[in-house]
Amino acid sequence: MRIDIQRKSFGGSDVLGRLRLDIRRGQRIAVLGPSGVGKSTLLRIIAGLDRDFPGSVGGDERLSVVFQEPTLLPWRRALDNITIPTGCDLALASDLLKRVGLQDQLDRFPRQMSLGQQRRLSLARAFAARPDILLMDEPFASLDPDTATRMIDLTGDLLDHSGAGLILVTHEAREPVRLAARPLLLRGDPATLHEDGQTI
Ligand SMILES: Nc1ncnc2c1ncn2[C@@H]1O[C@H](COP(=O)(O)OP(=O)(O)OP(=O)(O)O)[C@@H](O)[C@H]1O
Asked: Is 14 exposed, middle or buried (CB count within 10 Å of its CB: 0-12, 13-18, 19+)?
């Protein structure tokens, strides 16, 4: 997909400047930057959730988004949380639940699961949509360090297995290293993308 943003402003002030980025299935990118620089704004634009900007986001890749807070259906059990929103078949849903270690939790409601389990369920659901590119907004924040590391490695395994690409938004430099993602720095006011100290 091709992302070409001329700028993005809120109330007349520019948060993002000119940003151009190409990403294909199988490629992994991490957007790093301090709080408030515009990382979530950029990801929402890439996800098609914000179209109020001059420029374009195009391509026929299938996208799937994982937010920091699990956005699960509270009145549906774990298995249904995978099959209903994505329309995937039971075989794929069961396989993914096994891969994320929730094979014993198929009948649980989200409120009966820990935060880490809910995050893994959200991850399984994201892959059940068979994305070409997975978009993740700080998905490992506010987990204890061991759980975060397990979740990062699980994400890497699922990306390897599915062949999906990744755009990860984070402020943790270790995450792109562990996920073998190309690190891009979002900085400046308005913010632009930088790689190895150069604007891209
Ligand atoms: N809907 C909105 N209306 C007005 N301003 C907004 C809106 N959404 C974001 N902003 C502003 O745009 C800037 C970038 O916000 P954004 O959430 O994209 O930053 P971020 O890099 O993701 O931060 P964090 O790491 O803290 O999540 C901030 O100054 C924020 O206040």
From this structure: middle
